[in-house]
From TrEMBL, chains A, B:
UniProt name for this protein: Queuine tRNA-ribosyltransferase
Binding residue positions for substrate: 91-95, 146, 190, 217
Entries under HAMAP family matching the protein: Q_tRNA_Tgt
Known EC number: 2.4.2.29
Active-site annotation: 91 (proton acceptor), 267 (nucleophile)
Cellular component per GO, a single term: cytosol
């Protein structure tokens, strides 16, 4: 495998390093903007690049339905299609299919589901997911198909679910094979909020052997505290020498606390989704730009930022764009939020390298209104 | 006045030159993208700049209602507000108020109307329009308030209307005064499709004296042929040494034929509006990117263009973005169309300078499916 993960510095459990891939280096801890349907919503690819993102996430479920896996392959794969030449990680499609309550049926073989677009029937198996991601989409980091265990499941249900995911992980590994020199395969640890099940799931995946390990089934309703507690017991079960990816997380405080616990990679729709709805994250916490107090605020969100969306337009202008329902408002706040997330990751990487991560963490917790650390 | 209009070359009635303003040169013939509500819809200001536009148009009606003229002035004026430091031309607000059928009342004093946003009452007079444009918005080129004569009006109705516009022109000139060293005032010729009334309107405006002369009341339903015929009789009535601006026009063929008749400036929402709806103009005519034949078209719209939106994404990608209703599709096609319009103006300027405008005109008419020239 031409993927190497090098840890440059640690500070407690927090660590910073580089995941090297044939398409470029990913500085960790890393935040991956989500490009659901071959576009980071409301942003041009140059705007995304300008935020400093090293890697994007693509959604296999959306891409397999539109434009379709085989069509995407004929068009040269996702990188060429959307004009992004750096690494791409794709999810397996499992999470989004799992979210189609009433439209899908889980079996040992895989998931049968109906398209939310046209009602057509599809079957997603571990093998088909690998084919879609690795061969048709042409992703760099491929995720195994798994079942996201519903929050609130019993211990017994969570056990049955994680064992299905482990068997799908094994089939994914077989389908992926050992011959892919330029692509990596990640397994996904499930087990809900039960420490013994998280260990059991991690052990099963480690015995299969993956290039990286994701933590799934969090940020699905359990809340910040329980997420942190689950990370406390899960991360130590993962190999030190492989990247750790917390899927679908999260708010800035979630990123800080997960990095504190040793997580290396993140993805989330929050910065772009919130941006499209008028919410901007800042070093002083979130603001809603629609608020009347910004109607005549002549200052940009962050004059010190290198992101043009943060440092140039006044809050009054952004407020106006949202009031007038102009698309540019959605673009600028998505851009600002992605820039902020990348700046936050860069600040954490720098703090870890200097052994000052706990200072940064304490300062951010205080600024964002969270309880001081013990 | 620090505005100078220099004609560098003519080719028949067509002419190319530069309108110099304190905020920069406008190469003519010029196309002005429309930034209705302090934004060119769906585009960032850097994307607009990249198309080569020398000047933008702002809509006084929209700006006076939101964010409001006085608020805009407190925020530093429109240029600062939207981050555009080149020239801006504003319309008077008259056309959009005129379009509010049922919500407005014309009197000698001006137009009383209700806001389409909140129903609030407003009064737009020639004097208030000058104050809004020149003092509050801070526009570079200011248009007199006029009444757009409805297409289909009788000769008598058109005469009454143009005389009202002429009186408003005189009041606008008085309100504008002679002391504005950095701003220009344009009059607007009306007279519907009646040659004698167009002459009468032009004579009235010339005797008042303006820095430039606009032709209003066209592209309101009369069609391409009648528009051309009206230009044939109107343009010769305008001063040679002042810029001529055809308001609200138009399709590419309209621009070519109007330049042929001696027009120097244009504005139109068409490239951005059509772009948001999936239509792209090309040197071979318009295409609708939603058409199924583009679903697997691997080529960009125009690989030879300097506009990134024209030369980079494949038509298949643009097709996908429109099918998936992604905002980026609207951005990219608006950008492409504005780039195409600027390229068309540049091609016309170059052809006039070389004495080859008739060749270009004949070639474009043929490519776009219009009857050959006599």
């Amino acid at each position: 495998m031409r993927f190497t993960f090098t840890c440059h510095a640690t500070d407690g459990h927090a660590r910073t390093g580089v995941l090297s891939t044939p398409r470029g280096d990913i500085r960790t801890p890393a935040f991956m903007p989500v490009g659901t349907a071959a576009t980071v919503k409301a942003m041009s690819i140059d705007q995304v690049k300008s935020t400093g993102a090293d890697i994007l996430l693509g959604n296999t479920y959306h891409l397999m339905l539109r434009p379709g896996g085989e069509r995407l392959a004929r068009l040269g794969g996702l990188h060429h299609f959307m004009g992004w030449d750096k690494p791409i990680l794709t999810d397996s499609g499992g999470f989004q299919v799992w979210s189609l309550a009433g439209l899908r049926k889980m079996t040992e073989a895989g998931v049968e589901f109906r398209s939310h677009i046209d009602g057509s029937r599809h079957m997603l198996t571990p093998e088909r997911s690998i084919e879609l991601q690795a061969d048709l989409i042409g992703s760099d980091i491929i995720m195994q198909l798994d079942e996201c265990t519903t929050f609130g499941s019993s211990h017994e249900e969570a056990l049955v679910s994680l064992e299905l995911s482990a068997r799908w992980g094994e089939r994914s590994k077989v389908a992926f094979g050992g011959t892919r020199a330029t692509q990596a395969l990640f397994g996904i640890v499930q087990g809900s909020v039960f420490p013994d099940l998280r260990k059991r799931s991690a052990d099963a995946l480690k015995s299969i052997g993956f290039d990286g390990y994701a933590i799934g089934g969090l940020a699905v309703g359990e809340g910040h505290q329980l997420m942190c507690q689950t990370l406390d017991v899960t991360v130590p079960e993962l190999p030190m020498d492989r990247p750790r990816y917390l899927m679908g997380v999260g708010k800035p405080i979630d990123l800080v606390e997960a990095v504190h616990r040793g997580v290396d990679m993140f993805d989330c729709v929050l910065p772009t989704r919130a941006g499209r709805h008028g919410q901007a994250w800042t070093w002083d916490g979130p603001i809603n730009i629609r608020n009347a107090r910004f109607a005549e605020d002549p200052d940009p969100i962050d004059p010190t930022s290198t992101c043009p969306a943060s440092s140039r337009p006044s809050k009054a202008y952004l407020h106006h764009l949202f009031k007038a329902e102009e698309i540019l408002g959605q673009t600028l706040l998505s851009w600002h939020n992605l820039g902020f997330y990348q700046d936050l990751m860069a600040a954490m990487r720098a703090a870890i390298a200097k052994g000052q991560f706990q200072d940064l963490r304490a300062r951010l917790r205080q600024r964002w209104g969270f309880a001081p650390l013990d």
